[in-house]
Give the backbone structure.
Amino acid sequence: MDVLAALALVIATIAQAKQPTPVRAITKPSADVVLAFVQPGCVAEIACKEGDLVKPGQLLVRLDDSVEKAQYAQILAQTEDTTQIKASQASLEQRKVDLQRIEAAAQRKAATDLEVEHARLDVRIAELSLELAQFEHRQALLKLQEAQARLDRMRLLSPIEGRIEEVFVEKGEAVNALDKVIRVVDIDPLWIDASVPVPEAVGLSAGSRVTVEFPDPQAMIATGKVIFVAKVADAASLTMRVRIEVPNPTGRQAGEQVRVLCQQARIDQ
């Protein structure tokens, strides 16, 4: 019996050794962005509230941009007005016609060389006037882009698809540049940064499958996918940082403590 008991103990020890070591870790959002304005201003509009689902590019908060809008409208009108270019083109065409007539008259000895030179100079002046009008129009277009950039800086747009986690300001409040204004998070998928023992971590790579056990009261076991394995181990704890991505279609909150069991297998890409 002693031999059999010892053999059973050895088998149990070997089986236990082959089991992955549970690693405790904490879930976090796969994206967590705190937005701020790059210039001071007064909050004119808050287009969302905490808990709202937002899309990339969706307006979140706007500063008072009445002055910037007026400047933009003024410069836009300048870019749309091509009267000066058309006038310069018409003047150039007229000067060219005049030059042709004077050159023809000069061939008949009805115009002097001086009159021809003056006519050619008028054509050159008209060409320069047209070039100046075109240059000023291009400058107006650049000013319009600058005005658009100033308008854009008065608005905070969501850079990701996610939920509004926190709003730090209120409508009518004055804010300084770089003050925290709003926080957007994405919790589907969740990320987990786990400190995995080196012997298990070396067998993992991007795409490896791991098991994630969520706590009660909503006990759940999920399959996560490794998306990053650190290249340098922590010598003090003999662990390596492994980032795991876990689908979260039910919208479980981030910040839960979970257990990660690493398995040396791969998910089909």
